[in-house]
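The passage that follows is intended for readers who have already worked through the single-chain material. We present the inputs for a multi-component assembly, then the predicted structure in tokenized form, and finally a short commentary. You are encouraged to pause after the input and sketch how you expect the pieces to fit together before reading on.
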Amino acid sequence: MMTTIASLLHTDHMATVETLQALEDLLRRNRSAPAAGSVRPVLERLATVLRAEVQKHFGFEENHLFPEFTRQGETGIVMMLTHEHRAILPLAMRVAELAEQALAAGFTDGDWKDFAASGGELVERELFHIQKEEMGLLSAISALIDADTDARLAEIYRREVV
Amino acid sequence: MMPGGFMMGAHSRLLPLPVPMRFFAAAMVFHPLAWAMLLAGADAVPGFRGGLGPVLAGLHLVTLGVLAMIAIGAAFQLLPVAIQRPLGPTWACGLAWWLYVPGVALLCAGLATGWVPALHGGAGLSVAGLLLAGLLIARCLIGATGFPGIRHHAWLALASLLGLAVLGLLLAVDFRTGWLPDHTAFAAAHAVLAGYGFMGNLAMGFTYVLVPMFVLGPAIPDAVGKRTGLLAALALALAVCGALAGLGWLAAAGGAVGLGAVGLHFAALRTALAARMRKRLESFFRLLFPAWVLLPVGLAVGIALALGAEPAITAPLWGFLMVFGWLLTFATGILQRVMPFLVSMHTSARGGKPALVSQLTADRPLLLHAVLHGVALLLVALGIIIQSVPMVRAGAAGGLAGALALLAFAVELGCRTRAHLQDNPPFSQGHT
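Having made your guess, compare it with the prediction:
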């Protein structure tokens, strides 16, 4: 039985995967810098949604969820996922920043190369990270977290992330 | 939602990377040798019904040297993580490798040349290595409560391993003594237990974990795993009894029940794939899909063989489709994804910047392998059907070239892993 907080995190993962797939499609379709106007919806999504999705999601996990795991001695997975956050967050910020710039002034060739490199790496790292969270973290929550904690975490999540 | 708890404890249950990789490396080396043996014995492939020589050696280089080797390496690493149980001491995993790898090499040399001491010594060492690996896996399974679908298939695989090892030893001794009442019938039962019983059940069990994980799809329900496990057990019992008793209709009934298990398996996979979050399928699926097609095709040919249809064609075709067509295609497809995945997991778990699978993976050798492997399967299968030795020879040469391409991928993976570890120390060392 999935807990409320696991269900909320899963929904967030689905939204992030959708954003990442849009980014991946954009990179696959364009070997060189496209006109920003032609890819505006994807860039807007990256500039607005991606930053919030990743930053708030990671922040919630590190500040509220992982401490529950650490308290119960599950430090290994917490360490692994936290290290991955450190690798992913700067990439997500960079991609969002470049998308914002492109929306304002279009892509130069150099910007596009930077965007493609950061975006490709972000897609791969974040998808691998979500695989791990979906495979272990979400169902482990039901084994480690009681109903009261679940309700408290869900309330914090709705307040801080959604 | 994906299979529960797979990654929980993954960090603490990851074996040292060399433990599974040593098995995978041995498989990568035995793989081209197997095709080379098939090439050397190409003139005996059409109409092959058994007997010592390069064809039998090539067959065992694939089954023992590649398929079981990959299965042991994967089971040692993935099973403890999947079912959250300890495997056993690392030294025992190492001992299994040291018994098994020289054993397979010696056995296949004996099968190729007919040199009895190598045959018997190799069979003994191989069986010892397999049984030790089986004991470690059984130790891991005992007391486990999660993932009943995978556990059922894993237990079936272990039971089959015991049966195939006993039959294999009897067959090895029989080459000299000739005391078995019907060598061919025992060989057929041995092949069923090895191909469908041991490897097939491991393939089904691992598919239930790995495919949903890689496509970010929903978990395969435990009830499906239990049902396919039950049907697979019934199919094996019927087919083995039918083969040993010389009752073709009984063996064919086993094949039909096996087709039922495969149908349920595919229906569950289809549901998981249809509901996946990750829409773009990764390149290793170009091997998985043909392997899944060849599984029921091979079973259908096996049923035809059991019912007595053209044994000169159906006997070698069944063996080829089962071993090279389905299992080898499936295992090399999974392996090319699992090897970089494990490296990435290890680099993540040690606290450094995780290695990217795309940076570890050399795509060109993989594409070359996929194309050449496909051509090889087509040519050898056609060669068996129309009894054409040149076609079998051309196919085996293509398979050999493809296997060398896969070996190049593995060597490149090793080089890239070493470079990544040198360039990316753990965060505690490299960052403040």
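Commentary: The helical segments of chain A are 4-29, 40-71, 75-105, 109-144, 147-160. The mean pLDDT of chain A is 87. How closely did your sketch match?
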